[in-house]
Amino acid sequence: MTRMQPDYSVYLVTDRTLCVSGTLEDVVARAVQGGVTMVQLREKQLCTREFVELGRALRALLAPRGVPLLVNDRVDVALACGADGVHIGQSDIRYADARRLMGAGAVIGVSVESVEQAAEAERCGADYMGVSPVFATPTKTDTSAPWGLEGLRGLRRRFSLPLVAIGGIGPDNAAEVFEAGADGIAVVSAICASPDPQQAAATLRAVARGKRRAAAVL
Amino acid sequence: MTRMQPDYSVYLVTDRTLCVSGTLEDVVARAVQGGVTMVQLREKQLCTREFVELGRALRALLAPRGVPLLVNDRVDVALACGADGVHIGQSDIRYADARRLMGAGAVIGVSVESVEQAAEAERCGADYMGVSPVFATPTKTDTSAPWGLEGLRGLRRRFSLPLVAIGGIGPDNAAEVFEAGADGIAVVSAICASPDPQQAAATLRAVARGKRRAAAVL
């Protein structure tokens, strides 16, 4: 079975508590209109039943638009709501278990906080690495030392797996993250906390497109 | 596929925070020596990776002894660690989703807090009902009004599904819970918080056996 080759370029990670312009569904719908290419549902507070229902609502919104939906950590929620994959951190379910349960066609990304973890993610067959955090960020407080642009460049030189950078990325620094070798930028507050999620997504997508055109010219 | 017909009679629900006599694995091992017939791993604090590892450790302990392992709420953890089933509450994954993901052979129990929920549990094909709570209990604070022995008798008259009573059950009231129609008693603190989990389980098992002998005589 061939896995889909997703477009990681503008990757929205949800945070209901940051949404200022409407419900999470509203924010995701507008972000997709603006050009988000992938959505990860991250939810640490909801009970399983509500988590699955929210996943189903996002799936119904995203599937007709061809935008893949991943679920953070929870394979049960991903399977129940028909998500395209999961994103797992180093304290979440192990990659081998996630792959076995999700199937060969699922997209599975792994957060990496060290070169050793990056090597393991590539070795085990993950679809992409979440380079976490690339910059210091107030959204997650349980993270390790930032990779920085130099760390991202080092990963790019060493590994062929798609790199999705996360942590402290917004319109002002997105271009340099792409230039350092990221295939995608994952954002939380840059879209969720924006008063205009569609415009925020469109701005990031324009940066991503500009970076691709630059790469095509080289 | 035929589902196993488990012995629900002495059903241990885990709580790591209450274990006074050793680790959770120690407590479960000694409880099984004492006569526990089923174990439900309930865990709200651990990250998924540790939850799966704990499930695997219990599975390795229980499977050779023929004692089924269920996981509370988390189908992903149950599938990853090879548990025999799941127990779901009214805010957990829906029964239909749990059955689809766990397969026809899994044991799936549903907590019921009203006659309507009990009717739904029987209608949808659950393996047993968790009658919750039968008595008021300090272990769970988010529960609804207790069923009491009269409520349990009412469920017994009305439904044929196995009834597992939970909440405030210990050696002093276990016999009357069986007499009111329970197929099993689920306990948390009566075993986990006991200084001698083996003896605590043996006492409850003796009550369960006495009740069965009495039923066979009738």
UniProtKB/TrEMBL annotation, chains A, B:
Q: Which Pfam families match?
A: TMP-TENI (PF02581)
Which gene does this sequence derive from?
thiE
- What name has this protein been given in UniProt? Thiamine-phosphate synthase
- CDD domains for this protein: TMP_TenI
Gene3D superfamilies, per database record: Aldolase class I
Q: Which GO terms describe its biological process?
A: thiamine biosynthetic process; thiamine diphosphate biosynthetic process
Pathway(s) where this gene product acts: Cofactor biosynthesis; thiamine diphosphate biosynthesis; thiamine phosphate from 4-amino-2-methyl-5-diphosphomethylpyrimidine and 4-methyl-5-(2-phosphoethyl)-thiazole: step 1/1
Keywords of this entry: Magnesium, Metal-binding, Thiamine biosynthesis, Transferase
Cofactor binding note? Binds 1 Mg(2+) ion per subunit.
Q: Which family does it belong to?
A: Belongs to the thiamine-phosphate synthase family.
Q: Which organism is it from?
A: Oleidesulfovibrio alaskensis (strain ATCC BAA-1058 / DSM 17464 / G20) (Desulfovibrio alaskensis)
Q: Which domain of life is it from?
A: Bacteria
> What the protein does?
Condenses 4-methyl-5-(beta-hydroxyethyl)thiazole monophosphate (THZ-P) and 2-methyl-4-amino-5-hydroxymethyl pyrimidine pyrophosphate (HMP-PP) to form thiamine monophosphate (TMP).
Record-linked HAMAP family: TMP_synthase
Q: What is its EC number?
A: 2.5.1.3
Q: Name the top EC class.
A: transferase
Positions that bind 2-[(2R,5Z)-2-carboxy-4-methylthiazol-5(2H)-ylidene]ethyl phosphate: 137-139, 168, 188-189
Task: Please spell out the taxonomic lineage of the organism that makes this protein.
Answer: Bacteria, Pseudomonadati, Thermodesulfobacteriota, Desulfovibrionia, Desulfovibrionales
